[in-house]
Design a protein that fits this description.
elongated; mainly alpha; 2 helices
Length: 73
């Protein structure tokens, strides 16, 4: 059903949305969407950095544990 919309249908939908909500409301909505996407990307980057830091900490602990085991032998 949605495959048959085409360019004229999309333009009609855009005009109807613009008339119903107004230009100011749409621009503020798009600004909020942009802020949400930016926040989401920032959260993903922070999560990846945290995981990398945690894996480095675990590797350091394993290396330190192996060094103390060698000293006991």
């Amino acid at each position: 059903m949605l495959n048959n919309i085409g360019l004229p249908g999309l333009l009609l939908i855009a005009v109807v949305v613009l008339v119903l909500f107004g230009r100011g409301k749409i621009s503020s909505l798009m600004g909020e969407v942009g802020k949400g996407i930016t926040s989401f990307k920032k959260g993903i980057n922070e999560g990846e950095k945290e995981l990398a830091d945690d894996s480095n900490t675990v590797e350091t602990e394993v290396v330190a544990e192996n060094d103390t085991t060698k000293d006991k032998v």
